[in-house]
Amino acid sequence: xxxxxxxxxxxxxxxxxxxxxxxxxxxxxxxxxxxxxxxxxxxxxxxxxxxxxxxxxxxxxxxxxxxxxxxxxxxxxxxxxxxxxxxxxxxxxxxxxxxxxxxxxxxxxxxxxxxxxxxxxxxxxxxxxxxxxxxxxxxxxxxxxxxxxxxxxxxxxxxxxxxxxxxxxxxxxxxxxxxxxxxxxxxxxxxxxxxxxxxxxxxxxxxxxxxxxxxxxxxxxxxxxxxxxxxxxxxxxxxxxxxxxxxxxxxxxxxxxxxxxxxxxxxxxxxxxxxxxxxxxxxxxxxxxxxxxxxxxxxxxxxxxxxxxxxxxxxxxxxxxxxxxxxxxxxxxxxxxxxxxxxxxxxxxxxxxxxxxxxxxxxxxxxxxxxxxxxxxxxxxxxxxxxxxxxxxxxxxxxxxxxxxxxxxxxxxxxxxxxxxxxxxxxxxxxxxxxxxxxxxxxxxxxxxxxxxxxxxxxxxxxxxxxxxxxxxxxxxxxxxxxxxx
Length: 486
Description:
The chain is mainly alpha-helical. It has one domain (8-484). 76% of the residues lie in helices and 1% in strands. The chain has 21 helices and 2 strands. The chain has helices at residues 12-30, 37-59, 76-102, 107-126, 130-148, 155-186, 191-198, 203-224, 232-239, 242-248, 251-267, 272-295, 300-321, 326-353, 369-372, 374-388, 394-408, 412-438, 443-446, 454-472, 475-484; strands at 65-67, 72-74. The chain has a two-stranded antiparallel ribbon. α1 (12-30) runs antiparallel to α4. The longest helix has 32 residues, at 155-186. It is globular and about 70 Å long. It starts with 11 loop residues before the first helix and ends with a helix.
């Protein structure tokens, strides 16, 4: 067997993040409490430098590079996914700073675990074998389990962490068993090799692979939080500290999209008819359950948790249309990218409104927000409009792209059904806007001052305005998504 030296230069972002995590971990051990801000600064510098290096790779990109014995790939999909992960994580850390400081949550551990999760997502984005997909997935999710439980004096956070860990371990086992079946049927774990072998697969191989597909989809759909693997989502989103919830609902979704593309589209295109049928059922159930159950919620974190289930259902529509037209995949990537940007902003506003003593996460807490802080109310309006798909926000064009892809591939009935669910979903988003602008403030809210640091105010302003700007000028990001999935 000939050994080929890996191209370490293509993995510079991963190597840099891993090195910085080690440096930050050692630095944090010797820092005094009043100097803990250094951990935050180093974590943000890590993300900025990693983003800059990845952006340079994106601009210098010419063709896919496969290295590390076929386990790692550098292509447009990996690069764009990493860029989104770095940006969203950067904003998530900004939003988390004041929140975890006020609640005496271990700041050093939070950022170190967050960077470990980011590293795992980078591995997922560039994974080119089932081995690296699984390793990246575990590296990204294990820190999240610990982050959910970081608020030690909160019973809700501890319960959420236990549920997340148990369900996550089960999903990982299902995924690993599906991978083992694929290896047993093909004798390979490399995505490119598996795709080539399956072009001439025998009937017995296809039967084993169909069984493997069931377990693999179960693992993937759990990470997405789609029905029927959604049970953990509302409890974890509500029970976890809001700073952790906004991190979970953003960057990991983009990484999950990347590995779904690798597995279904690149490794198992022969089984496209099989996974299309499964995803049709899952998408319909996710859109229905997510939108309908969100209406009944009085806790805004729980409402947004159910809405995330619905948004995953919309994302899966792109995979359904994809085999007949690449427009489906690009529309799905555009949708999930814009959704995580908007969702992170919505949870950030919840974190800003909360005080040291109590989480202001009930819908009633948002009554009269416009009278208390007009700018924050306007940012929340833009984010809610985007989630509802109201023009000219980016959410409208994201949904429109998916519907166009479905119609172009003759799934008109599914597009009509998705439109009906979108109309249903608009109700609970617009209800938040009604509370903010057309309801009188509750007495408790009138006595609560909203103290927002300048950095957080700038970040949420950029986040909210991005929901509008990407809707007015969506072509640049749409083109990047289309090039990434070709």
